[in-house]
Amino acid sequence: MTDVDQATTRRDITDALLKAFERRHDVLDAIFDADDRDSAADAIATLLDTSRQGVDAVLHMSLDQLTKESRRRNQAALDDLNSELTFTLSDRPASGGDSLDLRPFSSTDDADIFAERTAEQGVAGDGSGAPAGELGDEISKAADRVDAEDAVWLVAVDNDQKVGIVFGELSDGIVDVRIWIRPDSRKKGYGVSALRRSRSELAAYFPGVPLTIRAPGATA
């Protein structure tokens, strides 16, 4: 996660806490009326118009955070973050990761997005930096590496729309992780969200193997 995205997320959480202070009776009613935690989270998200990260912060809030001193500290922190940042989390809605999923790359169904990536970057999908070969050969070689447990390719999907690809290639005992986001989906936080989700996914595929992240901020 970039420094800007970290600051934006902190601001979103701080703003959610302040909204919860102001509407504490409504928040408590929403929690009391909820059947379970998930329904309580949905109710708070709607009530406070905040992200899932903001909701989690509200649900995990301790009683000592309700004091006037805590509220003053949160307001001061929010003021500082507002002066530091010129946009809100809503400007990069995907960075919260609420709607993004990763699924395995399909040689047949996902050739289109890999073709788009290759046309833009002009290099092979294996991370070597070599010029891209014929599309079918690139995908076939990738499938062979996946079968040999030397690679994992994941497609980033937001509400059934393909927005990017996560490449994990095993080399010299390290997994080289690269993230490519489609041009029309950039600057919305998809790279940040894909990176966050890919860590656990790749750790499951390559247990105990270090990950080297290569995700240029310009394409996130």
TrEMBL record:
GO terms for molecular function: ATP binding; DNA binding; DNA negative supercoiling activity. It catalyses: ATP-dependent breakage, passage and rejoining of double-stranded DNA. Coiled coil: none annotated. This is N-acetyltransferase. It comes from the Bacteria. Gene3D superfamilies: 3.40.630.30, Topoisomerase, domain 3.
